[in-house]
Amino acid sequence: MNEPQMQNTNGIKYISSNLLERTGVVHAFLSRVGGASSTPFDTLNFDGRDTDKKENIAENNLRLARAFGITAPVATVNQVHGNSVFLLDPSTVDAKAEADAIITSMKGAAVGVLTADCVPILVLDPVQKAVAAIHAGWKGTVRLIAKETVEAMRANFNSDAKDLVAAIGPHIGPCCYSVGTEVADEFRRSFGENPACLKPTGEGASADLGEANVSALLSAGLKKENISFEPVCTSCNNGLFFSYRKENGRTGRQLSFIALR
Ligand SMILES: [Zn+2]
Description:
Elements: E1 7-9, E2 12-15, H1 18-23, E3 26-30, H2 54-68, E4 85-88, E5 101-104, E6 110-115, E7 119-125, E8 130-136, H3 138-142, H4 145-157, E9 165-168, E10 178-179, H5 181-191, E11 198-200, E12 205-207, H6 209-219, E13 227-229, E14 254-259
Helix pairs in contact: 4-6
Bound molecules: zinc ion.
The site of zinc ion (ZN) has 7 residues, from loops.
């Protein structure tokens, strides 16, 4: 995978999608750089479930709000590696749902997901004016969370999949993601014998979570030219990104978010 092309605003390093950039929607795949948290959450951690100090996370939210001109904290869900989609609207704005994707058509509301190796996916419907943030680990990937999210956007916003623009952010690459038989079988069940999703290696197989989600988005009806892909491995670039595998689970979570103006 390639050397990451990082943007920098007020010391916060992040990746933006060229496709989403062109639409003018505010969004970012944040790195771990530019925050206030200390080891092992250094430094731009947004996950309060572990032992990072509340005031550090609050400071990180403050820096985020300043850098991007959004209202922080960003709306997130309790991610559970499933395939449910949470609709954020005025009636659910105070709810904290168990889900792995969050969709909204509320202007000014930023929605996001937390990851450290899993795939963050940001989606925009430029026609119906709606956005989505998706968390896809291997379980969510094979349960087609990306496709479920497109279905939920169709059901709630009348979105046409052909209009949707999707961006796949930094995640653990096939270079660092060898999987056992059980996971490999699940990949085959969901994506068939697609060598882009599952590559045989010496001892077993390596899974390509990003390509598998591209495949899920295409099967949901998105156009290939409306999907951007950041070929950045969180494990290979552990100085820039939290990596759950590389750091044996003792790490923070980076935030990816999108918001309608
Ligand atoms: Zn790698």
